[in-house]
Structures are given as C-alpha cells and as structure tokens.
Amino acid sequence: TDTTHITLPRDGSGAATFSSTIAAGAATFTTADNTNQLTLVSTDADANAGPNLNLRRNSASPADGDLTGQLTFTNNNDAGEGTDYATMYAVSADVSDGSEDAAFYIKTMSAGTLRQRISLTDTATVFNEDSIDLDFRVESDGDANMLFVDGGNNRVGVGTNAPNATLEVRCPAGVNQTGTIRIAGSNPNGD
Asked: What kind and span of H or E run contains 7?
C-alpha cells in the first residue's frame, strides 16, 4: 500500500508535514522573519509528556566524558560575525551500566568569552565555575537581596546587595531586629 510521508500545501505557504523519519546528515530551516522554524505538535489527549524532543547520542562505544547533546544560541555581533552567546550541554560523566552519572552545564557570553555560569554534576551544583566577577542574587517575596554574593569583593550579604564585610546581615527598616541571627543546637529551645 502507498503511504504518504511528506505533505506540501498547495497554497505555497511552505509548511511541509512529515509523517515519517527524516534521515539526513544535516538539515537547515531558514526563514526571513521571526516565525517558528520548528514546531513539535502532539495531539495526544492523555496526561503523559508530549511533544518530546530527544537528543540521543547513539554511540557504539560510549565512554565517560562523552558530550551527550548541546543547544547553542548564536547571533551576529556588530562585526557581522556569528557568535555563540549561550550554550547548554550534557555530558555522560559515567556510562557504567547501573551507576550512570551525568553533568549539565550552562555557559553564557561575558566580555567576549563563553563562561561557565552553572554546573550541575553528580557531586555538586556550582555557580560561577570560571571564577569571574559575577554576582549571585536570590530574591524572596519581600526582599530583592535576600541572599547576595558579591563576586568581585568576595562578600555575602543577607538583606543587602552591598555587604561591607565577608558576611553582613541586614534587617529591613522597621523590623524588630531581635533574633536576626540565630545559632541553635539540635534543640532549638536551647535546652
């Protein structure tokens, strides 16, 4: 029986529909506007995940440290050069059956160089692995600087984005400052 694997619209819109595997060494989809170049659609009505995008490295000889997959965000700089502004990628840290480990990394451009911003490994979660002058900030519901790490001055602020010491804790104005810092043993009542 005949099976349709690709459908091209008669209206000339250029939206092709594939209903089979696309087997090619590489494919490039180009458009002159800001429309989506690739859309994955699932019409399944169940509660399972879908649509799915799976980056699979199907190596005949997998090894520890293999790059598993990567997404790269590229744009032209003002000299018209294609520049990678951000990448995220996974590494198969350990491919031993039953004890597999992975690592996931996010890099962004900083002062002309891709820098490791977040590293998620089997042993640690690290921010600013490349040790650049990069601040780290955590907001709470009422404080934009609930936790602030000053990367250039090697200081930590709680409630401040300008710590004047290695560790500085500030209470918001109008808040009772009793108990700003509490150090307790296993019994928080002090017994």
From this structure: strand 6-7
CB-CB contact of 170 with 158 (8 Å): yes
Helix, strand, coil percent content, the chain, rounded in steps of 5: 0, 35, 65
Positions of E strands within 27-123:
66-76, 82-94, 101-110, 113-120
Cα–Cα dist 104/89, whole Å: 6
The residues near 56 (Cβ < 8 Å, ≥ 6 apart) are: 69
Q: Are 59 and 69 in contact (CB under 8 A)?
A: no
Task: With CA atoms as reference, report the closest residue to 68 among 96, 93, 87.
Answer: 93
- Give the pLDDT confidence of 29-87 residue by residue, as tens digits: 777 888 877 778 888 899 998 888 888 899 999 999 999 999 999 999 999 999 999 99
